[in-house]
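Catalogue entry: protein
Contents: sequence, fold tokens
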Amino acid sequence: HMLASGRTSAKNLESTIGRLTHMSMVIPNVHHFLSRLRDLLWRAKRRHWIPLSPACADDIRLMKVFLAQAWKGVSLNLLAYRKPTHVYYSDSCPFGLGGYSTAGHAWRFQIPSDLRFRASNNLLEHIAAIITPWIDIIRTDIQAGDCCLSMTDSSTSEGWARKTNFSELTDDPIQATVRLEVARSHATRMIENGIKDYSQWFPGNENIVADSLSRDDDLSDSALTNLLLSLNLPQVPQKFHIVPLPNDISSWLTSTLQRLPVKEQLREEHKRTNLGRGNDGETGRNLSGSTATPSSAASLQPTSTSYLEHSPWLCEMDASLATFSIPWLKAQSAIPFPMWHRPSGTTANGIPPKMKMAKLADFYSAFSEASKTMIPTRDNKKRSPSVSSANSPNASSRSTRPLSNNWQSEPSSSHVDHASTSSCRLPTPAGQLH
């Protein structure tokens, strides 16, 4: 109806956004396409009717496509909590981007000098995180129903992979538009290809390989590959090799950076990593002219025994998918937030929908100690005329004199009935009638 009329009201738009939010239970990436509709709702609350912008109309048409997909059915493999089948690492700096997968395919992109200092570091981190699985989609290494995990050292990029809410009204319009398009392009690929997508943050000092791919532009692909393999880093897969970035991705990345203006506050000095750059002193200038003289004859080795064996790291150690998933598995093993905290301080099952309790006082008495202090309460009951003698001088004297020794201090108990919870009675002195 909104597309046909070209306008909408605040009430109708709010109801539509609520229903589309419910659709995120089966299509989680739908959150990336609701920010413009929320901006329109904010403006619609100030008027009776508001026209649909072309961008909002396109978003509603896309929602119709998602609704049709949800109506046909969504695989449970895309809804259930699963272990990743593909793990990716990525990193970026103002001078380049890089990443690799557990299968060994690595890539890097050096930003041209005229395109530097345009995108923020958070945006570059997010672009690097979505490029790595994009390469596997183009190579058809990832299929429908697979589950990919993007490891990044940027907490902002981790959040943007799950949900974005950029506002083109309050933020920089150009920056917000570019961020929206980057996040939506990734979400659209995941939805169209039927891929489950996770993201996880981990410390930057552990992201050694991806950091080198994005910063060490002075080394060739073969030199950097040999360097990383020679260091025996646990993050390097056995079949690690650097492949060229596909033309579709490189052209998309270049056009995206060209749309952003240069920001001088983003300018910084290029810092390369210290991998393979030892602190040794200068080499000697004069070489020795003496020749090596053998002190003994060469040892004869049997022809059946080989004395040149492969490195045990390259042939025995298995940098498998399970090894790369350890940081993610540790992060998921924490206690979930919605837990039922009992008065004893222990946590166990989740919050139940109902908690049956015969007496609320019995529940608290089990976890509280008796108090020896007697707290009198005000009696608001109407007294009969026969009890009007309470206002007499004798009664006032009885109320003001100190307590006698006949008073027995009894600990107050929490075991009270529901009928007696509204008042608290004091003990009666010995010999005094009720």
Notes: The longest helix spans residues 173-193. The chain has 15 helices and ten strands.
